[in-house]
Amino acid sequence: METKxxxxxxxxxxxxxxxxxxxLEKVRMTIQKAAPDAKEKISYSMPAFEQNGxxxxxxxxxxxxxxxxxxxxxEAFAEELSKYKSGKGSVQFPLKDKIPYDLITKIVKFRVKExxxxxxxx
Length: 122
Prior knowledge:
Elements: H1 9-14, H2 18-34, E1 39-43, E2 46-50, E3 54-60, E4 64-68, H3 70-76, H4 78-81, E5 85-86, E6 91-94, H5 101-121
Helix pairs in contact: 2-5, 3-5
């Protein structure tokens, strides 16, 4: 597992075992495809995507992948996320289960739209 703070998402992903790296890369590509204009960054030592504000963060842990779409992204998809362990702004996708990439796509697209609406209101 990663000990020094990663400077970019490649470094972050590179700090995990190969099987977890594959999942992290697929999560990353899923987010990139859903939010092609979002910029990658490391924030709070986690991979993040930013477009008119943070869209989502993601991270790997011993037994799960965490997705952080802030409270609104989780509230909007509460029903679909209900089978996963979650908090106010986080959800855990167990590594032993199939990662719901289609759901991640829907959440990311929702967050991009939400951030754009916030900017338009300003």
